[in-house]
Design goal:
With about 70 residues, the chain is α+β, with helices and mostly antiparallel strands. The protein has 2 helices and 2 strands; from the N terminus they run ααββ. The chain has a two-stranded antiparallel ribbon. β1 and β2 form a beta hairpin. The protein starts with 14 loop residues before the first helix and ends with a strand.
Length: about 70
């Protein structure tokens, strides 16, 4: 049986937070990196770390531009 993800974006959505959340629920970091490499863009670095904010632990996704 398939799984469904609902995003309620009534007031907008932050791309880095969505990518971090998708990685947290099982999206492939290697797959994401491969897809981004296929764009043949230069001048950026992807950082995927863990972040603790209060009692919440989450994936933190950052795009760092040179």
């Amino acid at each position: 049986m398939g799984r469904t993800l609902y995003l309620q974006c009534d007031y907008g959505i932050s791309g880095d937070m969505v990518v971090g959340a998708l990685l947290d629920v099982g999206a492939s970091e290697d797959g994401l990196r491969a897809a981004l490499r296929s764009l043949h863009l230069a001048g950026y670095e992807i950082r995927v770390t863990r972040k603790l904010a209060g009692a919440l632990d989450a994936c933190d996704f950052d795009v760092v531009v040179d």
